Amino acid sequence: MASEEKEAVAVEEPAKRKKPIVKIIIISIAVLAVVAGGVLGALYYFSGAGGTKKAAPPPPRPVIGALWPLEPFIVNLLDNQGERYLKIIMELEVSSQLVVAELELLKPKLRDNVLDLLTAKTYGELMDMGGKQRLRDEVAVRINSYLTKGKIVKVYFTDFVVQ
Asked: Bigger pLDDT: 52 or 129?
């Protein structure tokens, strides 16, 4: 019986020894995974791909073409509630310098056409939310109908007074 006890003790000792070794291996793998995750996270963060973003260059400023000023317009508005006047000064942004020479030649026709457009407007049309923008678009379309060497890109109002 003594030999049986010795064999049982001998069998239990390796089994007991295996348990601490398994625990140590599992703990060391977990520690290595945490350390590796920390190292990879730090590398990702400090490489610029993580929380710190590099400042993007500012967007390019829009290029403004040549501006061609029109003389002031003072017109009566089409209104039944009394006399209303509109004073407007515009500058036209043109697509190229060739358009400027063409505009100088067509100046009387263009002024007449814009005058017809302005006198057909009412106070309500000009003062609603999109009224001024619609007027800009209409002026550009009318003037562009005369041009052959380029076009009006945008219409700017430098003075706009309704009285």
From this structure: 129
> Domain map of the chain by residue range?
1-56, 67-162
* Cα angle: 89, vertex 74, 112; to 5 degrees: 85
So what's the pLDDT on residue 80? 72
Class for domain 67-162, per CATH? Answer: alpha beta
Q: Is 91 exposed, middle or buried (0-12, 13-18, 19+ CB in 10 A)?
A: middle
Cα angle for residues 107, 110, 114 (degrees, 5° grid)? 140
Q: Can you tell me the distance from the alpha carbon of 116 to that of 21, in angstroms, rounded to the nearest whole number?
A: 98
Six-digit token pair at 5?
């006890």
Integer angstrom CA distances of residue 18 from 28, 30, 60: 15, 18, 69
Are 159 and 141 within 8 A, CB to CB?
no
Model's pTM, two decimal places? Answer: 0.60
What does the alpha-carbon distance between residue 137 and residue 139 come to, in Å, rounded to a whole number? Answer: 6
Q: pLDDT, tens digit, for every residue of 65-92?
A: 789 999 999 999 987 777 889 999 999 9
